[in-house]
Amino acid sequence: MAIIQTLTTSFKVEVAQALHNFTTGTGDVFKLALYTANADLGASTTAYTASGEVSSSGTNYSAGGIALTNITPAFQGTTSYWSFQTATFSNVTLTTNGALIYNSTNGNRSVAVLNFGVNITKAGQDLVITFPANDATNAVLRIA
Fold this sequence. Notes:
Layout: E1 6-7, H1 9-16, E2 30-35, E3 66-67, E4 70-76, E5 79-84, E6 87-103, E7 109-129, E8 141-143
Antiparallel strand pairs: 1-7, 2-3, 2-6, 4-5, 5-8, 6-7
């Protein structure tokens, strides 16, 4: 089992099929679900799965995670990019090692797998996920 950070292969195809709308305010709802180090997530992940997700019995974490706030896609030079605003899991008790971004509006289709590199443990605390700067070099989602 492993969490491999990547854009999922199915997402790369689905972007060309216009199955994801990231426009701020009018686009699809994207969510961030948290996973333990025992999860098996990577390029072949096609949709949200509860397998390996952090325990929903942990304080204030619900299966499926939380909704993200989209930042409308932009471009610089020949690179298009987009991201999400900082996401906060409030007052949670859990241990996580990675996450899955997925489109809950459109069949829970996967977008990207995030690997935190270490176990992050919170006990009645906020878990804040800060996405990289939204630019052509750093945005969490980029097509160059």
